[in-house]
Structures are given as structure tokens and as C-alpha cells.
Amino acid sequence: MQLSAIDLSIIAAYLLSTVVIGLWVRRRAAKDLDAYYLGGRTLPWYMLSLSNASGMFDISGTMWLVTLGFVYGLKSIWIPWIWPVFNQVFLMVYLSAWLRRSNVLTGAEWITTRFGDGPGARASHMVVVIFAVCSVIGFLTYGFVGIGKFIEVFVPWETVAPYLPFTIAAEHGPHVYGILFTSIATFYVMMGGMLGVVWTDLIQFLIMTLAALIIGLIAMNSVPDAMLQAALPEGWDSPFFGWRLDLDWSQTIAEVNAKMASDGYGLFGALVMMMLFKGVLVSAAGPAPNYDMQKILATRSPREAALMSGFVSVVLMPIRYFMVAGFCVLALVYFDRLDLMVGGTLDFENILPAAIVEFVPLGVTGLLLAGLIAAFMSTFASTVNAAPAYLVNDLYRRYINPNASTKRLIYASYAVSAGVVLLSTMIGLYVESINSVLQWLVSGLWGGYAAANVLKWYWWRFNGYGFFGGMASGIVCALAFPPLLGPLFPSVASDILPLYLFPLLLLVSGGTSIAISLLTEPDDLATLTQFYKTVRPWGFWAPIHRLVVAQEPEFQRNQAFRRDMMNVLLGIIAQTALVALPIFIVIKEEFSVALTLVLIALCLGVLKKTWYDKLEC
């Protein structure tokens, strides 16, 4: 596909605006580390929320959602629970407020507020830094590979190479595009820190919103209802399911049945139950040490931290799925016009770029590509911003140069940002599959995160040694279990095998965490009482509560467990309804739209009384 001058101009104008913003906020960002990493905690919650939503609107994820929507229809609204998407609900209800009360710069620094500064705490601090850096490099590599392959569809390297004064082989074209866009994102992050990330994210989110509305409206206005209904297999337009999926594409697009078989989602009821089980535990563990955690710590108060996390779902889900539904409808009805052949095989993950090429008009293509590039750069930039927060603040300043000046620390942050991007780029040059990186992240890193990070919030006896042992064993087992135990589950697709192995992983890492904690001394009681008074968690904290009450008789226990769990349930229902709503709108299911709006209104009405009105300043 050849982009027009208008399309290229729109993309160039967007890229230039990001560079200008980075230079504009440079002086404010360099004031101190608090300003560089957290924007000085001066940014309002709604700006941080839009920034966070923008960071979650990535290209690779959108391509995946379009593929899921095309193949599974309304039933695809449950599959993203594998991440899980409802972790934002847990953050909204109580975990963001708990985390923000710690008043630290990073997740690794938070360790000292929970475990103190003994040997166990230092081991825990180090394993969190290692986890954070590995996840940052993994996500940067994922982004580098994804953006290069995406841009190559629209600007083939063969059309660019003749104008260059040097020769680069065609197979390296995507790498050149990846280097170009990652370099621009790295520049404005290095210059502007969190302020640069948030301000560019706002522009990016506006572009993506406009692009999503255009795509959804194009689908609604250009696809007759009769043609859409004729293209849908029975059950596609219903979110409800039984134990088995029971979608049959034989009468419409028979090749989709092979795609569904390879996905391994046949026992859909069991799959959703496992995703819910894993999702609740991972969500209860709190945010991983990445850009999501940094945005929470950047808010001005615990109340604003909760509002920020809650607003993410409200703005992200309807807009993103309006675009996803638009592309799905266009692809379903005009499937024969799409070029999905890659290497001689039909690749349904190519639906998004193929649909852009076929259906998006002149000018709008540039806007849409700018929006999707913005989505990539937002995620990439927020991830880059998290790296120096851990390496500079948690390693360099703490262990190497405690007396370093602010200027030296800012320059060190510049160097770390450039270094992790360079390292991830070098790794990306040797990675051919986006999915291989994604599976390493989800199954390898996040698989070992849950048990230790659940216990740290809710059980006073859990100590730094237990945290270190649980994290280390969890990560090792998450990497080792799939190749070792995979042959025992021949009928389970390799992509979802880690999900079915999660209970065993939880048993090993959780058992290790508990055993080590009980076999070693408790953490310093002064540290535990200070943490309990500051964060005010509910859970198994009775011995510490008695110590606090002995010192401060007026101290009140957090008795909000039942209310919080009810609010989590209401939040998950509302969030899922916000995903389904734009799909119902695009396929013009008026009754379902009305019913979904009523459900959302009821949930939000109850949450107004049981959550919003109860938020503490």
C-alpha cells in the first residue's frame, strides 16, 4: 500500500508534536527525581487516567482483539480476562489507595515500607528490581518487533530503499522502522520524564478516539443489516456460552474452524473459569512494577489514585472496542476482499492491517495510522519511563552513590533509558515472532508473580525471605513447567498451557512463600506496625492490630472487606458491559444496547454509594 501525501503529513505532524512536547517540559521534569519519575505528583487524576488508558491501547493488543472479535464474536469479551483486564477494578476499589498511601517513588522502594531494611528485605528489593527490568526489556522488545512489522504493511521497504544513500536488505526493513519510532519515543521520555509521557499520551488518546469513532461509523453506515446477519454464524452475536464453545463457521468461512481448533478454546466454560480464578489472584496481588504502578504513585492522593484507576476502564473499553467492532464487521461482510495470506498460509491476525488497506479512505488512513502509532509509542514511552525509576533510584542511588546530585541522577536516568532501549532493540533484531515474546512475558514473568504479591498485602507473618523465595521459585517454575509438563497435556494448545498449569504453579510458589516465612523470623515489628497504620489493609493482621491499638487506642480496623468485594463484583460486571456495549452498537442490536445501558447504570449507581462516596482523601 502506498500512503498519500496527506496521510504521511498527518503522521509526520503527530511525530513532530511529541518531540516538541518533550523539549517543552524538559526543564520542569529535571527539577528532581520526584518530578522526573512521577511528574512531581502535581498532575490531576484524570490526566493520568487518560495517559494510562492510552498506554493500554497498543497495536499488537488491538490486532489480537480484532482477531478474537472476528472469530468468536460477542464471546470474545471474556477472553481478555486471561491478562486479566479486570485488575483495574481491584485497583479502583482498594489497591490503588493502599499503594499510594506508601508515598514512595517505585515498587521496589515500597518493599522497605513492608519488610524493612534487613537481609530478607534487601533480597526482596533486589528480586523486584530484577523482575521490573526484565519485564521492561521484554515489553520494549515486544513493542519494537510489533511496530516494525505493522508499518512494513503500509510502507513496504522496497518503496523506501531506492531513496536511501546506503543499502539495507528488505528483511531488515521492519527493524529500521522499529528503530525510528522507538528512538522518537525514547527522546521525549528522556527529555520530559513522566510529564512528557502524560502530555504526549493526551494527544495520542485524542487521535485514537477520533480514529476509533470514524472506523465504527464507517462500519455502521456501509454494511447493510441483511448482509451482516448473513455473514454471522449462529451464536456469534451472543455473549452467553455453555461448557463448549459450539461456534460453527462451516456455512460462512470454513477456514475459521481450523483457526478455532488451533486456539484451543473448545472447552470455553473451563477456560473462563480458569481465567477468572487466575485473574482474581493476580489482580489481588496488586500492580506489577511497571508504568501502571508509576501512574498510581504519581497521583496527588490515595483518593485520586482510586479515581484514576477506575476511570481507565470507563474511557478505554468503549472507545477501543468501538474500533475493534468496526473492523470486525467490515472484515466479516467483505472477507473476500481481504488479503490475509502470509507465507502461503491464511493468517487471521493480519485482519487489522488488511482491513485498513481495504476499507479506510484517504486522509483517514493517516489519522488511523497516527493513532495506532500513538498507541504503540504511548505504551513504549510509559515502559521506558519505568526503567530508570528502578535502576537509578533503587540501585544506583541506594547502593552505589547515595549522595548523588539531582543533576547526576537525571543524567543517569537519560543513560538508563537509552541503554534499555538499545538492549531491547538488539534482542528484537533476533526475534521473529511477537507471540514468542508475549508468551515469555505472560507465562514466564507474570506466572510467578501472584502468590508472593498476594501474601504481602494480607498476611502480617509473611516476611522478606518468604517474598524473595516465592518470587524466585514462581518465576523459575513458570518458565520450567510448560516444557517439562506440556507432554502430559497433549490436547491443550501451547498458547494457553500456562493457564492450565497455573494452579500447580500457585501451589509451588505459594507453598514456598509460606514455608520460608514460617521457618524464619518475622519482620521488624516497628516496620509492620508503621505499614499497618499507614496503608490500613484488611486481612490477617490481628497481632499487629493489637500492638497498634495498645499504642493508639483510637485506631480503627479496616472493616471494608465485604464492601470491597461487592464493589469488585459490581466493577467487573460494569467493565464487561462497557466492552459489550460498543459491539452491540456497531452491529445495531438495539434491545441489547438498551439492556446493557441499564445494567451499566445500575452498577454505577450502586458504586456511587458504596465506593465513590466512601473514598478517603
From TrEMBL:
Membrane topology: Multi-pass membrane protein
Listed GO CC annotations: plasma membrane
UniProt keyword terms in alphabetical order: Cell membrane, Ion transport, Membrane, Sodium, Sodium transport, Symport, Transmembrane, Transmembrane helix, Transport
Transmembrane segments: 6-25, 45-72, 78-99, 127-155, 175-198, 205-223, 265-285, 306-335, 355-388, 409-431, 437-458, 465-485, 497-519, 565-585, 591-607
GO biological process per UniProt: proline transport
GO molecular function: L-proline transmembrane transporter activity; proline:sodium symporter activity
Reaction it catalyzes: L-proline(in) + Na(+)(in) = L-proline(out) + Na(+)(out)
InterPro entries: Na/Glc_symporter_sf, Na/solute_symporter, Sodium:Solute_Symporter
Cytoplasm among keywords: no
Record has Kinase as a keyword: no
Coiled coil: none
Superkingdom of the source species: Bacteria
Localisation: Cell membrane
Family designation: Belongs to the sodium:solute symporter (SSF) (TC 2.A.21) family.
Protein name: Na+:solute symporter
